[in-house]
């Protein structure tokens, strides 16, 4: 298996390899820590279980053959139809990233799929957002007879703990002259953390330079 991204369903009976690798492979891992305020100490954070991993893939589907595209390349409609079908059918998708600095091989669900075509080109730009999927099922209660009384005894299986509520984020309203870089530098200690703010608030790259004054944004933990 060569370096690249593979998406498949039903134990790899249906799937494809992306014809063009993205510029970067993005993985998001969040904690679900809960923040409390303690007198004379201030804010403290209590760590909780790690949330499901999230993945963002941004690339393009070529409408023509390029030297860097993979063999077996299909037309953009082939990939778009597959992803839309899996999304509509709520099918879990195996996401594999192989032979890079790290490896990904997980079941995921399609959370968001956006694409567009620029005039003058048959290439289709797309953004695919995936979230880790863990199979689960409803457990049935089994009846076990007691050897001494021959009366049925209900045996209950342990149910998984409830998921922790989502953390509450601090917010900030943009003022004139603000940018995501400046906000990250001011509240997170480093302007290079601006992608975290963009991700948390679903701000697209195309909107970075036209953020409205007064926009209320959530801030990730410092």
Automatic annotation (TrEMBL):
Region (Disordered): 144-168
Residues in LysM domain copies: 170-219
Composition bias, Basic residues: 154-168
Pfam hit, one: LysM
Region forming the signal peptide: none
Classification via InterPro entries: LysM (IPR018392), LysM_dom_sf (IPR036779)
Protein known as: LysM repeat protein
């Amino acid at each position: 298996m060569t370096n690249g991204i593979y998406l498949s369903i039903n134990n790899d009976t249906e799937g494809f390899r992306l014809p063009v690798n993205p510029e970067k492979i993005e993985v998001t891992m969040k904690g679900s820590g809960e923040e409390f305020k303690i007198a004379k100490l201030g804010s403290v954070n209590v760590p909780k279980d790690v949330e499901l991993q999230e993945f963002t893939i941004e690339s393009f589907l070529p409408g023509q053959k390029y030297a860097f595209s993979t063999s077996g390349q299909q037309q953009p409609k082939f990939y778009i139809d597959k992803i839309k079908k899996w999304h509509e059918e709520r099918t879990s998708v195996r996401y594999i990233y192989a032979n890079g600095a790290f490896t990904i091989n997980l079941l995921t669900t399609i959370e968001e799929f956006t694409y567009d075509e620029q005039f003058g080109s048959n290439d289709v730009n797309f953004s695919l957002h995936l979230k880790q999927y863990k199979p689960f099922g409803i457990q049935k209660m089994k009846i076990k007879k007691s050897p001494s009384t021959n009366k049925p005894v209900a045996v209950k299986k342990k149910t998984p703990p409830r998921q922790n509520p989502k953390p509450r984020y601090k917010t900030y309203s943009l003022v004139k002259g603000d940018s995501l870089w400046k906000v990250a530098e001011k509240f997170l200690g480093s302007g290079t953390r601006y992608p975290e703010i963009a991700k948390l608030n679903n701000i697209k790259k195309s909107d970075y330079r036209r953020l409205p004054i007064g926009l209320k944004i959530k801030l990730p933990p410092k």
